[in-house]
Amino acid sequence: MIGQMVGRYRVVRPLGEGGMARVFVAEDTNVGRQVAIKVLLPEFSRLPGVVERFMNEAKAMGRIRHPGVVDVFEVMVAPSGELCIIMELVVGETLREALWKHGPLPPTAALAVMEQLADTVAAAHAERIIHRDLKPENVILVADPLEPQRPRVRILDFGIAKLEDGSVKTATGTQMGTATYMAPEQFRNAKLVDHRADIYALGCVFFELAVGTPPLTGRNLFEQMQAHLTQAPPLERLPPTLPPFVRPLIGRMLEKDRERRIGSLGEVVATLRGGGVAPVAAAPSGAAPSSAARR
Question: Which of 125, 142, 146, 280 is least crowded, fewest Cβ atoms below 10 Å from its Cβ?
Fold first, then answer.
């Protein structure tokens, strides 16, 4: 597609590739800015379920108005027939890349990333959108020249997000998510997953960005499932340089029984900002808007 036009966008160079789509850098010829174009691979364009999931991603990202979510500009069809999502181009490294290169984040940076991640996903929950695949690969860290110790967070890939308006169905028996970060209930029945699965996944991510490795692992899918169903997270591995309230907070996020898990990411954000004291009770629905979402 290099050199081709998709509407007013000229494809410049490849950026990345996943299982079902390629991403390119393109130039908006009207205003001269660069954008990212996510292109559904032709072999999947004939599969209604995949097309629905691709469109669901655009719909979910477009609905959430938060600086932590990449902006979607429009959905188009390329002249060669591929379905394309035109979105904001974000330059940075994934949290996974940062962990590979540098190891665990320093406490100041770790707390900043935790707060921004929780606030961003809280904004998604306020729109009744459940991400269902939160992991370091789906988090971009963007350097802030004014605050080097506080990287800016952007969340990607809402491809398997669940919109609670019922517009997207989950087939019985379908695994939705990445096993290393899946809540126990997500293994049992993906159709019944609610916002609390995202809270559990973020607890896993919080642990990993502070320690360098996920809290619960296994050599295969069965062992990973058994770990999340039966093993206690090794909270003692969290570094002592973190504020004392962080360990019990992550512990509450990683409760195996979702009824005992912390109720909303609004409470997580408030706890992080309040230095361990949440000034307001969690909303029962778990969909309390974040501060940015209310602006």
Answer: 146
